[in-house]
Amino acid sequence: MPETALDIQIRTLPHQPGVYQYFDVDDRLIYVGKAKDIKKRVSSYFTKHHDYGKTRVLVKNIASIKHIVVDTENDALLLENNFIKKYQPKYNVMLKDDKSYPWICVKNERFPRVFPTRRVIKDGSEYFGPYTSMKTVKTLLGLIKGLYQLRTCNYDLSEAKIEAGKYRVCLEYHLGNCKGACEGKETEEEYHSNIEAIREILKGNFKDSLQQFRKQMKTFAANMQFEDAQKIKEKLEILENYQSKSTIVNPKISNVDVFSIVSDETYAYVNFLQLSYGSIIRSHTLELKKKLQESDKQLLELAITEIRQRFNSNSKEIYVPFKVDLGEEVKVSVPKLGDKKSIVDLSERNAKYYRMDKLKQIKIVDPDRHANRIMAQMKADLRLSEEPRHIECFDNSNIQGTNPVAACVVFKNGKPSKKDYRHFNIKTVEGPDDFASMEEVVYRRYKRLLEEDQPLPQLVIIDGGKGQLSSALKSLDLLGLRGKIAIIGIAKRLEELFYPDDPIPLYLDKKSETLKIIQQLRNEAHRFGIEHHRNKRSKSALKTELENINGVGEQTIVDLMKHFKTVKRIANAKLDELEPIIGASRANKIYNYYHKE
């Protein structure tokens, strides 16, 4: 075959780090990616088979390729992230969080004001943040207002205008919230010392302010200025109270960013904690929508770049749960124990809680999306060819070899469908034989569904290991259903999942939703089977015990059970309690039977 323009483009790509862009026939950007080696990465799209359907569709739609070579991997990460945000290509991860965050501005003025804003203007002012909620901003500004007397007016307090007496102090001065810089009642040097202390507080450093206030308090107390000393003491208490509410990690851990990721089939959640002077000063979780089954490593690298850009972080060290490639400018640590590991675990818990909250909201607002996500997750986790919308689970019950029964429970779209539950009394098996019993009930269940032209499940779960699974398979073979219904066995001890003709079991993550649904199915089948078994045993025991009494027939037993409910209550009943229900003669017989002594 002659080479196409696309083949020539691929062959001439450089072995350099950079960003590649895929365009469709209409010259629309459909995908952006970064790579250590552009040629190797792009070539891999066209030379290997892709299991995931969307990736195959992407490759079919590529009409042309462009690339940008950069110096470092970190530059590639930043460029990729900027392109994704700017152009939002069809097949790239979608950053779900695009809201504007609040900042605290220290205005570039002779007597700087400190106020909240959502607009960052490049006029030489300092901006601290962004903060993830306005509540945090208000709390910090309330703290600052309680500690330092700053102006709130927007006057131009130039030296010439103050000397000319252009302004007069306002109500804030008389309330004690401002020291009257507009009338020259406060020096620029004194005001700026307060601003410097505020800068440190906004960075998370309370140490300098605490030391300064303690020193002032002692000075006032030594000079017998007890009212002033009390005011400073109150400010100390405000500052110490605020600091105590901060999550203290370890004073030695400072200027560090912590990231973790939790993901499922369609979404990923990346949590970010920023540490300064041993305290967590910021927490944020970013939601990402997967498009091409991106790995956690790819998603975490993209999210770290986006979050650090968004929150203007310059931390030189990052803690993560696994190794990521972020270039040489940042030190990446994967803590294994101690305080550092604890903070990564805390970040992961935050990501999990955020995901749980999102899922709860989805369940309420869009239950179909919740079911679709779980079905897609189960299909991937259990390596199925289709989503298990209809699942059936079988369990045997034959306590001490008596009254063998079995239960079949049915889940549809991940939820119990109790009207479809079925009990089975074992008919062809003598004695306690779990394998033969399983073979019988599976055969009876699916023979009936076939005869009645009822829909078959996409997945059958057998409560038991290889033995029970093999027995169930015999029945599917007899019915010609092998390969048409997916079937697995779950062993109780280690929650091992067994597949037909595969000696090695599958182990799912203990916290995965797929395993939780399988466990729920298994437990429900066990409960339903035990309930039926108990009923059968109690009827058998009741019949045997009461029928042993001469002169007591079936109707007498029914009348007694209606009134007393249990055999134990009948046995303990007094003669005058029995007589009104069944008459004196039969009451005497039953009473004497249970009170022979």
Automatic annotation (TrEMBL):
One of its GO terms (biological process) is nucleotide-excision repair. Gene3D superfamilies: 5' to 3' exonuclease, C-terminal subdomain, GIY-YIG endonuclease, UvrC, RNAse H endonuclease domain. Pfam families: GIY-YIG, UvrC_RNaseH, UvrC_RNaseH_dom. Residues 207-242 form the UVR domain. CDD domains: GIY-YIG_UvrC_Cho (cd10434). GO terms for molecular function: DNA binding; excinuclease ABC activity. It is found in: Cytoplasm. InterPro entries: GIY-YIG_endonuc (IPR000305), GIY-YIG_endonuc_sf (IPR035901), GIY-YIG_UvrC_Cho (IPR047296), RuvA_2-like (IPR010994), UVR_dom (IPR001943), UVR_dom_sf (IPR036876), UvrABC_protein_C (IPR050066), UvrC (IPR004791). Residues 262-476 form the UvrC family homology region profile domain. Keywords: Cytoplasm, DNA damage, DNA excision, DNA repair, Excision nuclease, SOS response. GO terms for cellular component: cytoplasm; excinuclease repair complex. Residues 15-93 form the GIY-YIG domain. The UvrABC repair system catalyzes the recognition and processing of DNA lesions. UvrC both incises the 5' and 3' sides of the lesion. The N-terminal half is responsible for the 3' incision and the C-terminal half is responsible for the 5' incision. Interacts with UvrB in an incision complex. HAMAP family: UvrC (MF_00203). Belongs to the UvrC family. This is UvrABC system protein C. It comes from Winogradskyella aurantia.
